[in-house]
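Assess the record.
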Amino acid sequence: MFNRQVDVAEIQSNLGKWLQNKMPQAQDITISPLKRASAGFANETFFFDMSWKEGGKTKSEKLVLRWQPQDNPVFLDYDLGMQFHVQEQLQNTGVPVPKCYWLEMDASVLGSPFYIMGYLPGVTACEVPPYHSAGLCCDMTPEQRAKMWWNAVEAIVNVHKLDWRSRDFSCLGIPKDSADALDRQLDYYERYLNWVRQEPQPILDKALEWLKENRFEPKRLTLCWGDSRLPNLLYDDDLNVVGVLDWEMASICDPESDLAWFFFLDWHHSTGYGYPRLEGFPDKEETIQRYEELTGWKVENLFYFDVLAAFKFGVVIAKIAQFMKATGAPSPTDDWEIDNACTQRLAGLLDLPAPARRREELKIDEIKLAVQFHLTGPGGEDWYIISDKGVGTRYKGTVENPAATITVDANDWKAIQSGELDRVQAFMSGKINLVGELQVMLKLDEMISELSKQG
């Protein structure tokens, strides 16, 4: 979940020795410095290049190391082996996934179980900041966004139309019937909620009660991706899907659960965060119609899975909020664990009392505010930006009453701006100290990055 402070050089050395044992025919194996992935809370991922000699020829390949978290895992009963086996079963199907090489469950090798898979080149929608506010999707035309969306829907359909019974998905636990499939989901997230619970969770408890009372027998069971969202898809330059990633939430269940999760996470990354949804992305009704055309199935229980999606993500948010509070990392609000986009959404869906008054959306293009930066250590300096109705200007020194203040080592800040250090992990590890509104930082992300270059 939240990356450990690790000796990367030691991991690299041990990994090289382990790879040599896995490839006895290879000579002079060398691997490049490990580069940590910039996104994701649930797992730890590193990229590296491997080169070796074999049969008188020099060979090379880009590879990915996925490492099981040990400290503060997001998910209850984290199962790295399951993720590997699911991807193994998806090789050479209509669902593109990275090539699977080796799974190592012996924690003594690198300190945690891990697996090695191939690297897939491609681009993806950003997760932090949300893709409706920055990055690839903001730079697209409405037509390109529509193409990206429709290709994502087709990728989801390809998962659902796969003949899962003809392959070995026993790692997921095969339900005895359709009712059992849904009960497994509810039982797991009830245990998850009880594991997470540190204070009363009235909205999540009410949602779980409603989900139990309204359980039903799905008409069909399919392989479900579980984490169906744009940031988990890789696209080529023509916006064709070349990779379907992150299978830690996979299950055999009603396929409408994936569709609801796709809708909910898109809402969460736009309206839920306070950002307008980008023009060009098809709406819910259009998407349902297209999904029904592609599958030949009628979508009949989406409201149930809308509730389930908000509930599931609400439990995940509660776990993340607890860690952030424990480590002093900034969170959107002091009571984010119980008052967040998920609990607000559930209150609206189920006509429950809202956990608290919802904050007004921060409209950067209508207000004037300041953000202060204190860069410490060698090369450090104080500077600030003024954002006046969305137009930013950088100044030296300090400013009174900033909306947010960032304190960070100058070298770390430089590494963040160059991409060498992931900003999310910098927050989580305490390298960045934020006082003030996190929403300000998310809204001004691109402006801050641009004005940082002027130093």
In short: The first strand starts at residue 27 and ends at 31. The chain has a mean pLDDT of 89. Residues 128 and 186 are 29 Å apart (CA to CA).
